[in-house]
Amino acid sequence: MHTPTSIRIRGRAASAPAWARPSGPTLLNRANTERLLSVLSPLLLLALWEFFARVGTIDTRFFPAPSTIFETFVQMLRPTAQFPQGELWANLSASLQRIVIGFLIGAVPGIIIGLAMGLFGPIRAIVQPLIDGTFPIPKIAILPLFIMVFGIGEDSKYAIIATAVIYLVLINTAAGVRNIDKIYLDVGKNYHASRWMMFRDVALPGALPMILAGLRVGMGVALLVIVAAEFVGAKSGVGYLIWTSWQVFQVEKMYVGLLVTAILGFAAAVLLNWMDHVLIPWRRS
Predict the structure, then answer these.
(1) What predicted TM-score, i.e. pTM, was given to this entire model?
(2) Which is nearest to 169 in space by CA: 104, 128, 110, 100?
(3) Short-list 64, 45, 44, CA closest to 54
(4) Which of 15, 27, 85, 96 has its CA 20 to 30 A from that of 223?
């Protein structure tokens, strides 16, 4: 009987030719090919952009070449008399501080209230109508109200980010608890688990995938909101850099601000994917 890897001749097995043997792991398997394509696609786009800018096909007043944007990026990192730590880092650090503080102020209560809504019907009955009624309001539209209440300082930025984040985290957390198999909740009740144990040992692990999904969406919205808020209500930050660069027609600096925003979003996605990998190891099984 012939097999793909061997041929029996006179009671002995002879190896099949090399071309007939099943191939082992290769460098360009499917996963590596997809990673390579994910790297090459933006590089190809940048190369085409650079080429068309060099030959004059596109107007470099509005679409400067990527090499020019990168040169401006490097120049903005250098210390100056006005910005001893560099203009770019001065604005980036201001935005990062606002994002981190505002995100935590919104995410932590969002998780706690979402767990409570998922576990306890009376709390859900009280909070759900408020969420349904106020969630559709564009969060950036209430920035003037926050500026009137908290002033034009940092507190208004923290408040607008926290308001945008808490809804998304709360809704996803409550949905995650509601999707937990009822048998786990019944086991906790039958063994007379305290409310704290139900929070910590049942609801929180069961809702973690949805919580992290809410954190991902919340971080993306936080970036959108802070950039928009810094357009009109700040004297520093990445949004302020983009807006002032547009006003004085420093297009290269404007693109640097957009690039930094994209980098922040990518870094946040990598961080949250790492948290998913560490906190939910059973999803890899």
Answers:
(1) 0.79
(2) 110
(3) 64
(4) 85
